[in-house]
Amino acid sequence: MRRQGLLWLNAALSVIPASLFAGATVEGRVELPKSRSAPVQAKRYEIVTKAGVLSTQPPLAVIYLDGNFPRPAALPTKEVEQKDLTFIPALLPIEVGTKRKLPNLDDQYHNIFSYSPAKRFDLGRYRPEERPIPSVTFDKPGLVTLRCDIHEHMRGLILVLKTPYFVMTDTAGHFRLDKLPAGRYTLKAWIDSRTTREKSIDLKDGQTLHVDLP
Amino acid sequence: MSAAVATRSKEVASFRTRLFTAIMVIVATLTALGFYLAQRRVTTDAERNLQETFQTELSSTHKIEELRHAALADRSKALVAKPRIHAAIEDDAIDLLYPTAKDELRDLMEGEEPPPEQAARSLHARFYRFLDDTGAVIKPPNPSDVGELDGATEAQLSLTKLPETRQIGYIQSDGDIHEVIAVPIFSTDTGELVSALVIGFKPLELENKNTGMQSGIWVDGHLHLPALAPSAQSSLNEKVTPALANSDSEQNYFRVQVAGAPQLLFHKRLNPGSLFPPAHEIFCILSPRGRHNWIVCAGKSEPQARFCC
Fold first, then answer.
1. DSSP SS3 for B127
2. Is the ipTM of this complex over 0.85?
3. B14 touches chain A (CB under 8 A)
4. In chain A, which end has fewer C-beta atoms inside a 10 angstrom radius, N or C?
């Protein structure tokens, strides 16, 4: 009887993906560009440009595992707010196919559009009470620059990635990516619109790999 | 005795004749001198009056032109600050540049050209083009949307480099002339000079019905003075071109021979320092037909022909 119970348990465990039990972890640090100002407590970032390069201020990086991964059946809808005439968050990494709502939380009109090759759209003018909340599905990888036709200073970035495994660093450049599948991959760090660092890694189940991207 | 008297009488008569002749010569000389001086004074006065009239007209015209250019500059500056135009240039979406500009510049391009009396207040544009980072014209996908120009005219909009400040220019097209204003576009991302917007307008033409003063534009060896018949323009252009080509002053007047008579002509550089070819505004006094004008063009005091410049 006891033996039969163990067999049932074994059979049940075999149908659950191994990744739920194991999976690799990558952690480390990315050398970020020097910040032009003292870091602030509030987690709000602005998009800055220098010599044609778009990045966040204070600097942040997006770490992602590059490879061919199956696309999930459904992706969560994410939001980027327009508040106090800025995009919050100013930089958002998402997976290809993600739908993103762009609610207007200011008490005036916004007109969000993008001419970026990865996604061209124009939401037109809309007020805070606009329902349904205007949204866009990002179906092509690449960097999308968000602009407002009414407020020329507003800039937001969406990094559309072909992978579900990504994370943003903290302002010191530290990151941790977990529940990663075993295998050979390229770990990439998006620093700004023209700089992406990368390193080949070999992941094993249960392993915690330390990788620095200087 | 009688012979002596006769001789004396003859001498007296001869003396009287010589005296009379001398007096006549002196009177004639003084009269001629008086006429000469009077005519010279009249000429000088007329020339001074003409210059004063010119200066007054010039000042008035320039105030109107300055106001118009200021309005054009404001409008152009607002246009090149439009986020969509920047997005098209900065986000690698050149195919959207002209379609975007079509919306943004709609109010400038719509409607008909205003009549001359309203031209100073109008900002109606005839055409517009964007320049790439080398200063060459970015070809519009649909020229009818942006004001059609033939190839030669469009080529005149290209510059050797992108302008860092607003530039005024004048270009010719099929006997017509366009005033163009080129406004630099600096990237909001980088602050670098990335493009320029060139907008073409009908140039402001001065016509003062009281004095008959008319303005024209000389550019690149061609004179455009619509108040003159084409043949008269051509004839005057032959005299004006070498004089302007050799003139290094921005504002001056000089004499040209027209129909065998010396005439005064005023000119002023319209676009000093511009990357576009130098253009001069030419001022003429046009005498109404049949009117005996007080204007004396460099000493010619007879009634003037159709034009007197």
1. strand
2. no
3. no
4. N
